[in-house]
Amino acid sequence: MALTPQRAANTLAITETRLAASLRALGFPYTAETTIHERTGAAVIQFLFGLSSLRFPALKLPQMLQAWRSGEMAREDPLHVLHVMMTAHECYDALLRMMKDHVSHCLHLRSGGVLTVYRPGAAAPPPGARLVWTNDLNLAAACGVVGVPVLSIDGSAGQHRFGLAPCGYRVLLSDGGWQAHDTATLIARDPVREDEWRLRMEATQPLHPLCLAYDALHNRAQLKAELKGQGRAPMILIDEPARVIPGAHKGACLAVRQALVSADAPGHVMDQVTRHMQAPPMSW
Fold first, then answer.
1. Percent composition of the chain: helix, strand, coil (DSSP 3-state, to 5)
2. Strand, coil or helix: what is 40?
3. Which segment of 68-77, 185-194, 257-266 scores lowest on mean pLDDT?
4. How many alpha carbons lie under 13 Å from residue 115 in its C-beta half-sphere?
5. Which of 82, 199, 202, 275 lies 20 to 30 Å from 40, alpha-carbon distance?
6. Where are the beta strands (DSSP E) in 193-266?
7. What span, in angstroms and rounded, lies between the C-alpha atoms of 222 and 216?
8. What distance in Å separates the CA atoms of residue 42 and residue 80, rounded to the nearest whole number?
9. CB count, 10 Å around CB of 121?
């Protein structure tokens, strides 16, 4: 379907898959649209999101994205649902690197201590610690948002297990107190017929950062499955940020490179391209 002026005025086009997954989790209506790249003729995927979420209270997309992209959200409202979800994607991507490259990462406090995120570095298990194991990559990554690190990974591709610390690092709560989460309690499940993977906390504290993070990563997997369900995976267009060309005359000083990558490409391919293009990470 062509992007008419009317549709353009009522939607925002998103090509960053992690952001698209988070907006999907937040209830923004969207369509995944395949267009033809003018220069190469390749099929390119973009996500067109409505400007208001369908959940109550409704979130307004333009204002929310402006606050997130400017850094205002991280400074002023670090527990905003979008900021929590995007932090979850960072933790997920770090676990992918740990599995692929066998590079150690450890958790660091973020946003004054209300959240944590992985950074390269060693993290040794406490002496005598009995790790809490899960084979759920999404859950292991979500735990990283609230101070519970993965200290060990075993198994082969597709069958990895993640050894979580039995107790997390202390994180700052919204009421001003500090808490170290008990991991077994944090990841306990309360399955129902509609959702056999439901966490117990989702029933009692659905807006807890762990639940928000887990929801975002679940939607990431669903979004990937939707693209695969279209048959041959379309291409994702990765833009390089606009650059000023030294010596160029005014009005002709912007140069933008673009890269076309299969939506089915492995995470390390996405990482390599986005590092080269200095663009936001796009890995699944």
1. 35, 25, 40
2. coil
3. 257-266
4. 29
5. 275
6. 235-239, 243-244, 254-255, 258-262
7. 10
8. 37
9. 11
